[in-house]
TrEMBL record:
The lineage of its organism: Bacteria, Bacillati, Actinomycetota, Actinomycetes, Micrococcales. InterPro entries: AspAT_Ic (IPR024551), PyrdxlP-dep_Trfase (IPR015424), PyrdxlP-dep_Trfase_major (IPR015421), PyrdxlP-dep_Trfase_small (IPR015422). Signal peptide: none annotated. Keywords: Aminotransferase, DNA-binding, Transferase. It holds the Pfam family Asp_aminotransf. This is DNA-binding transcriptional regulator, MocR family, contains an aminotransferase domain. GO terms for molecular function: DNA binding; L-aspartate:2-oxoglutarate aminotransferase activity. It comes from Brevibacterium jeotgali. Transmembrane segments: none annotated.
């Protein structure tokens, strides 16, 4: 950052220009929202054939099952077969369930709390439990773990995934550390994809808790913006080779592939943990929505059908990601005021602003009519100790709105940065 080399006069003049730019935007009465990573209406439209893919006349699955009836707790086999190679999970170890993978994560953790895992000495509830949270990370992961009583422990992330030395030293000495969140591909929000080497290290590291669990949330497994893209990692095979077959629980869904609120969620694990999960699920469910499974299986037809569908998403999303990069490069690049990611997939751009200014940027943007995810949301308990990280979600609004929103954010970053050096806050 070259801010410290500017004279007070230069700072004052840049602040004046930035404020004038900001005020022009504020006067426009904008109402834009780039807070959540939702698909756009055009993306949802791509999957509308789902709505007619099953009728009363053809509701039978490949093996003749009437999908309208109860049963089939593990989910429809033909849909599990399609997603098996895409997620790197053998079909018999992959369950297709309801519409939300977050719900399956909640269930898995709740089952562990109430009943313990098969390898637990006792249920997790009633003793202190801690969860490792790679940062910056996904706010709903943190909120879920917190709501179940976990203490959240931040760990750093680098270009290959979570800092494995930090994880190894924490996990080796503390039996209350029961798990770690991992978003292995195009992570939310920084867009990092874990390397196979890092995966092997995480699956092999010695843990004081015999039931240490890796929550492998592969939410963006197929959400590539460009080539080459990461290939599925056989996390269950790697864990088994390392002698820790039961360590990873795999989650994924079609939320950002088909219809976000009406997709299909998947759970994968070792045979032992699949039995465990299915057994506890069975206490509260007679079977998932197999009509929805059948619609999805017919709509895609094959793994290649899913890949082809995701290429259409990439065509819609790429211009939006490019627009934000272009605006930030133009507005923030020359003055070297911030750094941002240019991800090769996923749903987010992470913007790093001068420390101590992120909350102010978010507030200024809100006052100018642009809603951003609260600063700090990418950290446990919503507190970013550096107050520097902002998550940008460019997927949902139309392209023109994304461009204007990025311009407003850039103006806010300039105002906040120059204000901070002109009159540092205490
Ligand atoms: N995991 C991650 C990392 C996500 O970003 C999201 C959606 N924002 C989810 C899970 C939610 O998935 P679902 O819709 O399947 O509950």
């Amino acid at each position: 950052m070259s801010l410290s080399s500017l004279t007070p006069q230069e700072i004052a003049s840049r602040l004046e220009t930035a404020t004038a730019d900001y005020e022009r935007f504020a006067a426009r009465g904008l109402s834009l929202d780039i807070t959540r990573g939702k698909p756009s209406a055009a993306q949802l439209d791509l999957a509308d054939e789902l709505l007619t893919a099953v009728t009363g006349a053809d509701a039978a699955s490949a093996d003749g099952t009437d999908t309208r009836n109860y049963g089939g707790l593990h989910g429809l086999p033909e849909l599990r077969e399609i997603f098996s190679p895409l997620l790197g999970v053998p079909t018999e170890q992959l369950l297709a369930q309801g519409n939300s993978s977050l719900t399956l994560m909640r269930d898995a953790l709740a089952f562990a709390m109430l009943h313990g895992r098969p390898d637990s000495a006792a249920p997790w509830a009633g003793t202190p439990v801690r969860m490792l949270c790679p940062v910056p990370g996904y706010d709903r992961h943190f909120g879920l773990a917190e709501s179940l009583g976990f203490e959240l422990v931040p760990v750093a992330t680098d270009a290959e995934g979570p800092d494995v030395d930090q994880v190894a030293s924490l996990v080796a000495g503390d039996p209350s550390i029961k798990g770690i969140w991992i978003v292995p591909v195009h992570s939310n929000p920084i867009g990092v994809s874990i390397s196979e080497r890092r995966t092997r290290e995480l699956m092999a590291l010695p843990a004081a808790a015999g039931d240490f669990t890796v929550l492998w949330d592969n939410a963006y497994a197929l959400h590539h913006l460009r080539e080459p893209h990461p290939e599925p990692i056989d996390v269950l095979g790697i864990a088994a080779e390392a002698g820790n077959a039961d360590r990873p629980l795999v989650f994924a869904s079609t939320s950002k592939i088909t219809h976000a609120g009406a997709g299909v969620a998947f759970f994968g694990a070792s045979p032992t943990l699949v039995d465990w999960f299915a057994r506890h699920t069975a206490a509260g469910a007679i079977g998932p929505d197999k009509v929805n499974h059948l619609r999805h299986a017919r709509f895609f037809g094959s793994p290649e059908g899913v890949r082809a569908h995701m290429r259409k998403h990439a065509e819609l999303l790429n211009p939006k990601f490019a627009a934000v990069d272009e605006v930030f490069s133009r507005e923030l690049g020359p003055e070297d005021l911030a750094a941002w990611t240019n991800p090769s997939g996923g749903y987010f751009i992470t913007l790093a602003v001068p420390p101590g200014t992120a909350s102010h940027v978010v507030k200024l943007a809100a006052e100018a009519g642009v809603k951003l995810t609260p600063a700090g949301a990418t950290h446990p308990h919503g507190v970013d100790p550096d107050d520097a990280i902002i998550r940008i979600a460019p997927t949902m609004p139309p392209l023109e709105e994304v461009e204007v929103a990025a311009e407003v954010v850039a103006a806010c970053v300039r105002v906040a940065a120059y204000e901070a050096v002109a009159s540092p806050r205490g």
